[in-house]
Amino acid sequence: MGVSAQPRRSHAGRGLGSVVLALLLGVLLLGPGAALALEPQRWNLQDQSGLSWSLTLLEQLDPSYPGGLRLRFTDRSGRQALDHSRPLQLRDGLGGSWELENRSAELVPAGETTLPESSAQFDLPRFEPRLRSELPLLLVLPLASGDPAELMAPPAAVVALHDATVP
Question: How far apart are CA 90 and CA 133, in angstroms?
Fold first, then answer.
């Protein structure tokens, strides 16, 4: 019986190389945007009546809907019904104002018509004129009752909105 003096080759190196190559090709073929989705950011706010709301900045990734950034509001008190047909209004401390298109239909699967009463979602475009990160920002949220909820965005949210919409 003879013993071979040749070292055994490990196949682990080939497997790791294949994984690295596949990941690299995925990034190159899909582009850098496909690999880097925006991590949702959340803030808690109160309206002029003291009711609690959550504000979420997120990226629309559902292929059934147009891509882009969204602002989502959710009434945490369970006492408000949102108007899913009107835009969100933003107002800064120097008289700047913007309207964001209502995209609440994106809260449910495509084709479904019953929308959640306590949540609404809005398109977040590039602002013209640009949103200024150092100014207070009032969010005027349309409610089904006709009277809007008014919320002051916390400074961290204003900075995040500014940074997300600057080219």
Answer: 13
19 inside domain: no
Whether the predicted model's global pTM rises above the 0.90 cut: no
User: What is the sign of the dihedral through the CA atoms of 121, 122, 123 and 124?
Assistant: negative
Instruction: Give the CA diameter of the chain.
Output: 93
- The domain in which residue 104 lies consists of 37-165
Question: pLDDT band at 131, cuts 50/70/90?
Answer: confident
Domain with 79 in it: what CATH number? 2.60.40
Q: Is residue 29 part of a domain?
A: no
| Structural domain includes residue 25 | no
Instruction: Identify the residue with better confidence: 37 or 111.
Output: 111
Alpha helices in the chain, H assignment, sequence order: 12-30, 32-35, 155-165
Among candidates 92, 66, 72, which has minimal Cα distance to 152?
92
